[in-house]
Specification:
With 199 residues, the chain is an all-alpha fold. The chain has helices at residues 2-11, 25-40, 42-50, 64-77, 82-90, 102-110, 116-129, 153-164, 177-187. 52% of the residues lie in helices and 0% in strands. Helix 5 crosses helix 9 and helix 7 (116-129) packs across helix 8 (153-164).
Length: 199
């Protein structure tokens, strides 16, 4: 295994520049090919990272993975589209590395693949979710009011009310991660918008 890894990373053809400004069309064709191959593995990496949330309770009634599954299941059973359901599944994926800004981490991951409204919901759900508990921590539960008047305010409030804040029920029968895997793969197959979409 170690020899294969060395061959893959150490012996594979690589660009020859030391600074980007020295790069040639051939260098960037090589890098572009590697980028496309790496991008195809994004759904696998996202699904694998989601499993890191399994068994992580943080004091909640259910673990973070089950909360994610429950949120997505509720959205799916309510008839939401696939991009919305995938956003719901991934909305807390940033908990592990973005402990102090998990909504922004999740929003960055889903941004190329979802609508502007769905991205906004994901990016701002933390402030809206605070409506249900910030006052117990000595914080302002109405912090979401800073967004009043925004075109997506009601959509974000609805996401939190119907799917997020209600998704801590140990007795709720969520779909398993395998159920959502094909959705994740379809949604992440091609970005709707990205600076690198044509690479």
């Amino acid at each position: 295994m170690e020899v294969k890894e060395q061959t893959r990373h150490g012996m594979a053809e690589r660009a020859r520049f030391r600074e980007m400004k020295e790069g040639t069309a051939e260098d960037w064709a090589l890098i572009g090919g590697n980028f496309r191959e790496f991008a195809r593995g994004l759904p696998d990496r996202v699904l694998k990272h989601l499993t890191l949330l399994e068994g992580d309770f943080g004091g909640f009634p259910i673990c973070r993975l089950e909360h994610s599954l429950q949120t997505a299941t509720r959205a799916h059973r309510d008839g939401r589209g696939e991009t919305y359901v995938v956003m719901a599944l991934l909305h807390d994926i940033g908990d592990t590395l973005g402990t102090f800004n998990h909504p922004e981490v999740a929003a960055s991951i889903v941004k190329p693949f979802v609508t502007e409204e769905e991205h906004w919901i994901c990016q701002n759900h933390g402030a809206f979710q605070g409506y249900y508990y910030f006052h117990h921590l000595g914080m302002d539960k109405d912090v979401r009011d800073q967004f009043r008047g925004h075109p997506h305010f009601d959509a974000c409030a609805e996401f939190c009310e119907k799917y997020d804040q209600s998704a801590f029920d140990p007795d709720y029968e969520s779909e398993r991660l395998e159920f959502f895997e094909p959705m994740v793969r379809r949604v992440m197959a091609k970005p709707l918008k990205s600076l690198y979409a044509d690479a």
